[in-house]
Amino acid sequence: MKKISVIGAGYVGLSLAALLAKNNTVNLIDIDKSKIDNLKNGKKIIAEQEIFKLLRDNQERVQFLSEIPSKESDYYIVSTSTNYDPHKQFFDTSSVESVIDDLQHKFSSPNIVIKSTIPVGFTERMQEKYNTKNIFFSPEFLREGSSIEDNMKPSRIVIGSEIKSAKNFSKILLDIAINKPSVLFMNSKTAESVKLFSNCFLAMRVSFFNELDSFAMEKELDSKKLIESVCLDERIGNIYNNPSFGYGGYCLPKDSKQLLANYKDVPQSLIEAIVNANSIRKDFISDQIIKLNPKKVGIYRLVMKNGSDNFRESAVQGIMKRINAKNIEIIIYEPEIAEESFFGCEVIQDFDVFAESADLIIANRSSPELSKHHSKLFTRDIFNNN
């Protein structure tokens, strides 16, 4: 049994802490004291219920803290947020750097595992700055809403180091896996690239089927039959092919932009096209909505997908801002919002009132409760899945 400190109580940190506590003692640390207080009181801070069930089941081996304790842990997993800074055109890694600096000053040679998404070359710079190999990167490949399942059935375990403590850490991750994933050891730059290229490929796939759908709409084709026929080719497959208003969420937008920034001195055209495709799709969808001349548009849910509570980079917000710029009145139905307005638009908590008030309802992902309002529904959710 190891002593593990997980720093950052987002999806990655919460799910890892919940699973690692089965076989280890875990400190879950976050500087947001209100978040820690909620966790101590058994309150859910994200939508994924299975995380909190596991935390309750293993509560005798989990501590919720707002500071790093003085007693050293065997491993420190850093899973703080690294948002993309559009002005610097790079990830803001300040939270990760702050944690690493704090750990290096508290302890002589701590084992630090970076799980936050970072630019290529970041880990190497930290190793050089602190003259240690005990900082290494191990990317996560989690889908929002299924982080427990993805940690228990990982497609692969990637470790950006081959030192002994890194190999021992891979065994800790294998202990919580119920499948038998491949474990790949590589240098830190390669491991950092794996995460960015993986998410950029998924963004490309989403963009491909969105642009196929745009073509079908313009040419009056049957988008569903077109997609189904294309995807029967086993080389293409039947995943990430449901049209949407654009890719969104925690990872795909920022990771694609970060990868493009890392291409600064490398010839490319595809990566830039993937980044641009998202804006082009939102422009196209917005134009289709505006052409319908709605007086009042109802935005059904701001979250990225069903089962989510994440608004960040959700594609529907991009649509909302574009049609709002045309002075079209907007109302919002979003149970996750307690406020009466969002970006200057009225939030209506009663679904029936919302639906009757709008003359057009737009939904990135459909829902059974919209079925009786089908005549005024605009969605590109063809297959009714995320």
Summarize the structure.
The chain is α/β, with parallel strands linked by helices.
Layout of helices and strands, plus pairs?
Blueprint: E1 3-7, H1 11-20, E2 25-29, H2 33-40, H3 49-57, E3 62-65, E4 75-78, E5 84-85, E6 90-91, H4 94-106, E7 112-114, H5 122-130, E8 135-137, H6 147-152, E9 156-159, H7 164-175, E10 182-185, H8 188-219, H9 223-231, H10 252-262, H11 270-290, E11 296-300, H12 315-324, E12 329-333, E13 341-342, E14 345-347, H13 351-357, E15 360-362, E16 377-378
Notes on the protein architecture:
This protein is of the alpha/beta class. The protein is 41% helix and 15% strand. The chain contains 13 helices and 16 strands. It has helices at residues 11-20, 33-40, 49-57, 94-106, 122-130, 147-152, 164-175, 188-219, 223-231, 252-262, 270-290, 315-324, 351-357; strands at residues 3-7, 25-29, 62-65, 75-78, 84-85, 90-91, 112-114, 135-137, 156-159, 182-185, 296-300, 329-333, 341-342, 345-347, 360-362, 377-378. The strands form four sheets. A six-stranded parallel beta sheet has the order 3-2-1-4-7-8, with helices on both faces. The mean pLDDT is 94.
List keywords for this structure.
single chain; 386 residues; alpha/beta
State the helicity in percent bands: 40-55%
Q: What is the number of helical segments per DSSP (H or I, 4+ residues)?
A: 13
Order of helices and strands: EHEHHEEEEHEHEHEHEHHHHEHEEEHEE
- How would you write the strand order of the largest sheet? 3-2-1-4-7-8
What's the end-to-end separation, in Å? 38 Å
Q: Give the overall form.
A: globular
Low-confidence stretches are none
The proportion of strand residues reads 5-15%
Structural class: alpha/beta
Number of strands: 16
**Sheet having the most strands:** 6 strands, parallel
Can you give the mean pLDDT? Answer: 94
Indicate the radius of gyration in whole angstroms.
Answer: 22 Å
